[in-house]
Amino acid sequence: MAHSSDIPIGSAESAGPSGRRTIRTAIGPEADRKRLDSFLAERFTYRSRSQWQETVRKGEILVNGRAVRPSRILRAGEEVEFVPDESELTEPPVDESFTLEYETPDFLAAGKPGNLPVHPSGRYFRHTLLMLLRERCGEVYPVNRLDRETSGLILFAKTPRAAKLLTKLFEDGRIRKTYQAVVHGVFPARIEARGFLGPDPESAVTKKRRFFRERPSGDPGEIQTAETEFRLLASDGSRSLVECTPHTGRLHQIRATLFSLGFPLLGDKLYGPDDALFLRQAAGTLTEEDRASLILPNQALHAQKLEFVSPFTGEDIRLTMPAPFAAHPAVSGLFHSAEGSGVRPEGRADPSFLIERESVRQNG
User: Fold this and answer.
1) Is residue 13, in this structure, part of any structural domain at all?
2) Which tens digit of pLDDT belongs to each residue from 316-361?
3) Which of 48-84 are b and which e, b meaning 16 or more Cβ less than 10 Å from the residue's Cβ?
4) What is the pLDDT of residue 124?
5) Cα–Cα distances in Å, from 147 out to 121, 214, 241, 357?
6) Residue 105 maps to which CATH number?
7) Three-state SS for 229?
């Protein structure tokens, strides 16, 4: 069970020799043969394409260490470097109320609120969990990541060696992560969703993904096998509290799978009932009516549990953290019902959602 992230692979941000923020991004296969100005406008949406063209002409954008033209065609494996003007780059406000849930000499587990990015990306740099933790705890290294609006437990190593060992646990599926989600609709007792994740061909948002029960056509590099187990915890007839256990770790895996199964998350601008909300949020044009339709201010997905054997002491580690949105009047009844039932329903997996594990292996 690998970790998932909303941060593009190969992207890194740091303070350069002058102390200024430096953004370096390795070009992945999805951006191969794309114009530099188009890539920048899609990757960093706080500027228009024409604004990025002017930035490139000023020599503030380097490709493989050299100044280039806005029309430069990128190739996979190249590196784009940008040192933004801090006076222009105002970071959006975030919820900085993170907690330290567990700490050892080798690692710590932080409790992340919704609306706090884990790692510097886009307009976020100091307003990220990583940078806030470094201010309090010194150098730490993120082991797994969560989407910006996903709350819950996240591991940070204190040394490069600890980071390597803990990352290996994730890669080998030896860290069990359990999430809680609140979705629209009456969820079945149990679903085992085994299939594939790939780009959503019907969405105007390029990074949106969809879950498919059969391998879709398209670029093989953009298609990934995905497996998630879902169990119903409580339902009030219009919304459901669901336990989610991912057995693979893919970008937006839980959110995209629930949306594709017909059970979008409350509060989710991208994978909710209307992804036009995501575009309006990016443009800063969300209306009060839009916010009311979301029900919750952030997506209702929470990393509730982490379970693993410490590679340093051999101790069984079992960490839990309550969902910060559990007290919201719109969903608090679901959490109370789940707590009062004492036994979560097991049921049988809905066969209409199953793809045999062997089929996934053969096609993966």
Assistant:
1) no
2) 999 999 999 999 999 999 999 998 765 443 444 444 444 332 333 2
3) eeeebbebbeeeebbbeeeebebebebeeebebbbeb
4) 81
5) 12, 26, 19, 27
6) 3.30.2350.10
7) strand
Q: Which residues are catalytic?
A: 147
Q: How many domains does the chain have?
A: 3
> Does residue 330 contact residue 323 with C-beta atoms inside 8 Å?
no
- Structural tokens at position 153: 């437990």
CB 70 within 8 A of CB 37: yes
Question: Are 306 and 261 part of one and the same domain?
Answer: yes
Q: What is the DSSP letter of 295?
A: S
Give me the half-sphere count of Cα atoms (radius 13 Å) on the Cβ side of residue 83: 12
Kindly state the percentage of the chain with pLDDT values over 90: 68
* pLDDT (mean) for 226-236: 97
Shared domain for 241 and 277, answered yes or no, is yes
Task: Clarify whether residues 254 and 351 are in a common domain.
Answer: yes
Closest CA to 168 of 157, 152, 179, 154: 157
Phi, psi of 51 (to 5 degrees): -65, -40
65-114 pLDDT, tens digit each: 899 999 999 998 899 998 766 655 678 899 999 999 999 999 999 999 99
pLDDT for the residue numbered 199: 93
Question: How does pLDDT run across 288-305, given as a tens digit for each residue?
Answer: 999 999 999 999 999 999
- Residue 233, domain member (yes or no): yes
Stated pTM of the model? 0.76
- Give, in degrees to the nearest 5, the angle at Cα 349 between 347 and 350: 115
Which structural domain range is residue 73 located in?
21-82
